[in-house]
């Protein structure tokens, strides 16, 4: 079958033939309908230091998708051929303490689809049935293909109570942009987002941001004054991976503020710990999505009129994958969809 394969230990991605996946007793086979490109796929494309030490070559990559179940393993219950599904890309061990306690997102033995094992940029993928999520009919394919990153946004944004709170989001990448929409949807007061990219800040405004600031041109403190905020932000969502953005966030948090950290910095970082202590800040690291609480929350929000469609800015046939990767790498995009049909 056809797949987008990381074939060589250099920048790039290649369309190639790969073996058809086999399924075990507890797996399902899924025919891919649409996929989306993640920042992780760009790290793999660029073949940075993380990719070099993580990704086996050659391997089909990708983990954001929607597809149709075409075969189920003999032990699988609750799924059938023809079901339209996406899947949780973190495959967990099932036997560690957290897995057994129902906290699969904290599994110490997590394996990543399209990172540690073959991914969804292919005509078919095999995944454990316990990772599969049936998509409600009311959710269109393009949105169903981005439930994974939407889930990162939901997991982070719903970590703390946002009702009536002033929220600062650093980083208007696709995930930050979706977090704006979620914060609005669940009843935050002011939702301020920062980035250094005007294209993405414009998308964030479309999603309902009270203010979308280019930090190379304007300051968060000035924006607070303009909005009439007096005491700083109640909740911070770090979604840039940029340490200066995080430091700036810590400056403008209110005493007792709560900060959820999704963005992954490139290396070790130094922070003003005294400020965190004296302000009594609560910091929480976020990894992946809660299985499957986050998935239920996000589909329910979509079914109660949360609209995240503006985050999808480009759609390509898979034959034009190079163009799709180029636009994603340019930074002048939100989510980019690849159609496999
Ligand atoms: P992205 O790289 O598309 O977005 C990051 C944004 O931060 C970019 O738009 C960039 O311009 C912006 N930025 C750079 N410097 C900034 C600064 N000084 N101030 C404000 N913004 C700045 O990434 P994404 O796909 O939206 O993901 C967001 C972050 O979350 C990334 O760091 C990614 O690696 C991380 N991530 C973590 C998990 C997890 O499970 N923890 C999952 C997915 C993504
Ligand atoms: Zn586990």
TrEMBL record:
Localization (cell): Cytoplasm
Entry-linked Gene3D superfamilies: Medium-chain alcohol dehydrogenases, catalytic domain, NAD(P)-binding Rossmann-like Domain
Catalysed reactions, semicolon-separated: L-threonine + NAD(+) = (2S)-2-amino-3-oxobutanoate + NADH + H(+)
Cofactor note: Binds 2 Zn(2+) ions per subunit.
UniProt pathway: Amino-acid degradation; L-threonine degradation via oxydo-reductase pathway; glycine from L-threonine: step 1/2
Occurrences of domain Enoyl reductase (ER) (ranges): 12-338
Cofactor: Zn(2+)
GO cellular component, one term: cytoplasm
Assigned keywords, A-Z: Cytoplasm, Metal-binding, NAD, Oxidoreductase, Zinc
GO molecular function list: L-threonine 3-dehydrogenase activity; zinc ion binding
Broad EC category: oxidoreductase
Site annotation Important for catalytic activity for the proton relay mechanism but does not participate directly in the coordination of zinc atom: residues: 148
The keyword Cytoplasm appears for this protein: yes
SMART domains found in the cross-reference section: PKS_ER
InterPro entries: ADH-like_C, ADH-like_N, ADH_Zn_CS, ER, GroES-like_sf, L-Threonine_3-DHase, NAD(P)-bd_dom_sf, Zn_alcohol_dh
NCBIfam families to which the protein is assigned, alphabetical: PRK05396.1 (NF003808), tdh (TIGR00692)
Function, in words: Catalyzes the NAD(+)-dependent oxidation of L-threonine to 2-amino-3-ketobutyrate.
PANTHER family cross-referenced by the UniProt entry: L-THREONINE 3-DEHYDROGENASE
Oligomer status and interactors: Homotetramer.
Family per record: Belongs to the zinc-containing alcohol dehydrogenase family.
Protein name stated in the entry: L-threonine 3-dehydrogenase
UniProt organism field: Desulfosarcina widdelii
